[in-house]
Hints:
11 helices; 17 strands
Amino acid sequence: MDDGLPRLDLVGHPALRATHGKTLEFTVDPDVTERATCVLGVAGRVTGGAVAGPVRITIDAGGAVATVDAIANPDWAGGTAVVRRGTDRRPDTFATEATAAAADLPRELVARIIDPDTPITVRCSRLPRRPDGRAGLVLAWTAPGAPAAPRLAAELVAADAVVAEDADAARVAGERTIRAADAVTGLLDGELGRVLVVATAGLPGASVTAALEAPEKVAVEVAGLPAALVAAAGSPVRGPVQLAEGRSRIDAVLRSAPPEVTLVVTVAAADLPRLLERAADRRGTRTATVVDPAAGGVVRWGPVGRLRAGRTSGELVCALDGAADTVLGPELAAFVRGLLAAGISARTAAHALAQVPGWSRRSAYDAVLGLTGD
């Protein structure tokens, strides 16, 4: 096991049942009731520091052993540790996206944790990739000249490689920096399991937009920014950003910003489908980013027709990318329209656009389709 990684030492309790289907928990409290169906040990003592990235959690209850793979939460507050199947990152959340919950553990282990004399040890070791097989990309912002915050320090340790987007970021990143192009290739080809991008000026991630456009291969997180700017940073479509005030009516919000800007909106989860539909109809939005603030910076970007809320209640933050023709600008839009009018296929026109600096194949294809109305 890795030195310095968190370790919990606990004991059993007769009220433990381990029947919860979504979480498991290790508590520092000395006593619980039978309602605590996710708890696997009590009276916990914690050693070790913050950890980020994919981890294997090994639970040893008097010689009965089980393992759970998950994504560590570097913002864990210490003390009681909750491991969740979902993505919610509350202060007591030690890890998310777990491969098992309390109800999935071997019954031999469960039989031992009801004995108060059973010593229970929970250790962590790092994994090279996420449990779902995808690589991880973390976009981090930090103030120029500031020391690395605990979250950033944990991410620096967890990363296979670091991309520094400016000179101040290079000082934070240290000696493991690589070129953005090499990072993208490594992520998409499976050679790198986790890459950290650090910026001190502007939104992080402009240098790695190709990786942002492959959600089936790369999971994206953003650190060091408020939720509204997390949403804007999580999109490969970069341009002026406008933040809508509070929870306004959808139609009023869509009228408040010109179509060329990235419009960031706070929306009820139940209203997200209507927002995306109206944005497509009224301002030509084809792609957007959705952030669940409770998930601690995990972002989802893609075509508006494929994005889902992921929950039925609570609030989400959505960044609506600018319309395709306004994102292209008048000269590029005229160039692409000329190709289409000459009978050139949308795919070939997108390939031509992708040769322009700053345009990836995916963003070029989305922009061309936006001009065709497809």
